[in-house]
Amino acid sequence: MTSPRSASIVGLLFFCARFAAANTTPSLLPLPTSVRVEEAELVLSGRWDVRRDGCDGPVLDRAFSRFEADYERSTGIVAAAGQDVAVSIRCSNPAAAINATQDESYALKISLDGIRIDAAGSAGVLRALATLRQLVSLRSGRPTLPLALIGDAPRFACGASCSTPRVTFSRSGPSSDRLMPWSASN
């Protein structure tokens, strides 16, 4: 005969396992403002067929080359002849150089037809590629992407950083002089 305590533990474990299986939202950092993921997947079996509209320049050429290299390194698969994956990238406000005031917003759509990135500028394309890189999965034994609709934009116009390891406390009060020579900003 089972005790009520063991029955409740088994019930709790079943509930947790059921909840974990139902949660199909991928882990993404930083967390986009909106994420909608479907059960189906886009199988990545060919080369990347990239088409850009308003997003030209060496910055994005290098960014996509890095994406391809990261894809090959993380999956161990070199893109070869097969069913090419269509990647459509569109910038509504292209800028010559990425700067601190450039709009980083983007919309990323992964469908069975391919991948579509709509960004305000080059910085948005870079952020979308970073998200796309995190979505590549080998769970089914081959590289796939979940069908998804993701939108993101910075939540604040500017950011701040608090570097707590740079400040030390002694009896005489806080001092950052002892650690300054090893600081990353020096």
TrEMBL record:
Molecular function GO labels: beta-N-acetylhexosaminidase activity
Protein name per the record: beta-N-acetylhexosaminidase
Cross-referenced InterPro entries: Beta_hexosaminidase_sua/sub, Hex-like_dom2, HEX_bac_N
Domain Beta-hexosaminidase bacterial type N-terminal, residue spans: 26-153
Secretion signal, residue range per the UniProt entry: 1-22
Pfam families found in the cross-reference section: Glyco_hydro_20b
Catalyses which reaction(s): Hydrolysis of terminal non-reducing N-acetyl-D-hexosamine residues in N-acetyl-beta-D-hexosaminides
EC numbers: 3.2.1.52
EC supergroup of this enzyme: hydrolase
Gene Ontology CC, one term: membrane
Lineage top rank: taxon: Bacteria
Keywords on record: Glycosidase, Hydrolase, Signal
Single GO BP term: glycosaminoglycan metabolic process
